[in-house]
Amino acid sequence: MEMQRSNMGEIIEIPQAPSGCCYDDEATNFEDAKHRVASKNKLLIAIAICMVFMSGQIVGGIISNSLAIQTDAAHMLSDILSFAISLFSLWASGWKATPRYTYGFFRIEILGALVSVLITWNVTVILCYKAIDRIIHGTEGHDVHGWIMVLIGSLESVPSHIDSAKLARDLCETVNGVDAVHQLHIWSITSGEVILSCHIQVKPDANPFIVLKKVIQHVKQEYKISNVTVQVELPEDVSQGS
């Protein structure tokens, strides 16, 4: 406080302005630092996982002389570089504000994103050049043939979470009127979309329409199969077929 005397002889206290300025808010900085630490940990985990996969792709691409595998490894490398740049940007953006840069260094994250995009485009150009060069000069590799991949992808199998034999026994033991289940087929056409088709043999004293309804309801409720097609076989149909 500065003391001054007025014209009336009274003493007046005049508050002085603070000698310096504070450029950071402690509470806000603490939350920002906490968020940056969590983001850094996630980026470090992502970098470690990508390096493991990239190492395997590099070895496989060299052994098989496969441009496709080498391309995937290069793409993985660009991801690792992007993660590393993001990691540096997070660290640098945590620098304290200064009298010259009063808003801090948060813009470094934007520059890091720009560098990541440039790296991705450079890798793309290089890989396109290598692919065109291989096509023109006819360099032979050992890339996996597309028809083999299509063939493998076309093979249908029962989803891993469903036991077809157990499902057939369950229908015979749980649904009244079911005598036997055969021609059972279960497959997945896409993620979460499972299809079932089967023939059921009903008992002589059972109502085939009621049995059919119960079978479809049971399969949908217990096994979460959305598309169910059931063909009912009556006892006389079975006897004629035999």
From TrEMBL:
Q: According to the UniProt entry, where is the signal peptide? A: none
Identify the residues that the record assigns to the Cation efflux protein transmembrane domain, covering every copy.
43-152
GO CC, sorted alphabetically, is: plasma membrane
Question: Which Gene3D superfamilies would you find in this protein's record?
Answer: Cation efflux protein transmembrane domain (1.20.1510.10)
Q: Which domain of life is it from?
A: Eukaryota
Q: What is its main location?
A: membrane
**Location of this chain's protein in the cell:** Membrane
| Stretches assigned to the Cation efflux protein cytoplasmic domain | 163-233
> What GO MF terms are annotated?
zinc ion transmembrane transporter activity
Spans traversing the lipid bilayer: 43-67, 73-92, 104-127
InterPro entries found in the cross-reference section: Cation_efflux (IPR002524), Cation_efflux_CTD (IPR027470), Cation_efflux_CTD_sf (IPR036837), Cation_efflux_TM (IPR058533), Cation_efflux_TMD_sf (IPR027469), CDF/SLC30A (IPR050681)
What keywords appear on the UniProt entry?
A: Ion transport, Membrane, Transmembrane, Transmembrane helix, Transport, Zinc, Zinc transport
Q: How does it sit in the membrane?
A: Multi-pass membrane protein
Name the family the entry cites.
Answer: Belongs to the cation diffusion facilitator (CDF) transporter (TC 2.A.4) family. SLC30A subfamily.
- The entry's protein name is Cation efflux protein cytoplasmic domain-containing protein
